[in-house]
Amino acid sequence: MLENQTFLITGIADENSLAMKTAEKILENNGKVVCTGLGVTPFHNNLSEKAAGFLNKNYEDFEAACKKVLGDDVYTAPLDVTLPESLKFLAEDLKSKDIQLNGFLHAIAMDKTIRNKSVKPMLEVTAEEFNDTMNVSAFSLISLCHAFLSNGVLQRGSSIVSLSYIAAEKVSFFPYINMSIAKAALERLTIEMAYELGKEYGIRANAIRFSPYMGSKAGNATLKVEDVERADRISPLGNALPEDLAHEIVHLFRKETRITGEIRHVDGGFHIMG
User: Fold this and answer.
1) Is the per-residue pLDDT at 162 higher than 90?
2) What pTM was computed for the model?
3) Which pLDDT score is estimated for 186?
4) What's phi and psi for 212, nearest 5 deg?
5) The domain 6-272 belongs to what CATH superfamily?
6) How far apart are CA 106 and CA 110, in angstroms?
7) Which of 6, 19, 78, 199 could form a disulfide with 12, with the two C-beta atoms 3.0–4.6 Å apart?
8) Phi, psi (rounded to 5 degrees) for 135
9) 3-class DSSP state for residue 144?
10) Helix residue spans in 97-223 (DSSP H)
């Protein structure tokens, strides 16, 4: 299904990440993956010892998970989407290795207003916190597209998929506030990319809203067990599984589809409930 195609997977934190499940599914369908994780890059300046330690540990865990699940020869690289130099370096490295991308998964998110499953009220969020979350979680879609297209790495007819959730549209009982706004922006940017990149490059772009998921570091940092159980009870089909999400992403990555500009739901029908 995905023979002779290569996809960039962002947002892998550990072996249970939704992004990792997607990477596995791509390999199952005879595609190839390259993976990026947050870590120290040559372009990080004046990092504190604590920050450097955090980034190094994060990247070590990411790389170990990728090699364990995807194989020792999988391409991995550190990436900070807030640094143009880091994006350019990645694109140039892919090009130097003759790696052409047929699409990518945007699964990057960061929100400093969430700590120990507690979320700041919107009125207490600072401009810096808001802008940082927006830059990493939403504008990075534009940054990735620009870096890959300007360096001739992202091919015509490629497919882009962004990960989101229902809180981008309406207030929910999930502990997302500031991040919800960034996801709403990500969805809107995805639609804009569907139009702009579709017209010029034949590139498709879609977003998927997924069920609440605690299996990864990211989900476990915000959700509570009762949140997931409540969504499972409400959803007509129960919560969707990571396998369901990965299957849908692979479907959207297929060259044969002409699906673009959509906000799709892989959530067991949760979105239709009041």
Assistant:
1) yes
2) 0.95
3) 98
4) -60, 140
5) NAD(P)-binding Rossmann-like Domain (3.40.50.720)
6) 13
7) 19
8) -65, -50
9) helix
10) 127-134, 140-150, 178-201, 217-222
Three-state secondary structure call for residue 224: coil
Count the neighbouring beta carbons within 10 Å of the beta carbon of residue 82: 14
* Residue 16 Rama label (left phi>0; alpha psi -120 to 50; beta): alpha
d(CA 127, CA 37): 26
Looking at mean pLDDT, say which of 53-57, 74-78, 173-177 comes out highest. Answer: 74-78
Q: Which two tokens stand for residue 195?
A: 């139009």
Record the tokens describing residue 41, joined without a space.
């890059």
Write the pLDDT tens digit of every residue in 56-83: 999 999 999 999 999 999 999 999 999 9
pLDDT for 216 beyond 90: no
**Which helix or strand (DSSP H or E) is residue 264 part of?**
strand 263-266
Instruction: Give residue-wise pLDDT tens across range 107-151.
Output: 999 999 988 778 899 999 999 999 999 999 999 999 999 999 999
User: What is the Rg, in whole angstroms, of the alpha carbon atoms belonging to the chain?
Assistant: 18
Q: What type of residue sits at position 193?
A: M
Q: 178: which 2 tokens?
A: 């500031």
Candidates 122, 104, 100, 105; CA nearest to 113 is: 122
List the structure tokens of 86. Answer: 């880091």
At a CB cut-off of 8 Å and minimum separation 6, what does 211 contact? 231, 232, 235, 239, 240, 266, 267, 268, 270
Q: What does DSSP say about strands 118-119 and 114-115: parallel, antiparallel, or unpaired?
A: antiparallel
Q: How far apart are CA 204 and CA 259, in angstroms?
A: 7
C-beta neighbour count of 134 within 10 angstroms: 19
Dihedral (CA of 166, 171, 177, 178) sign: positive
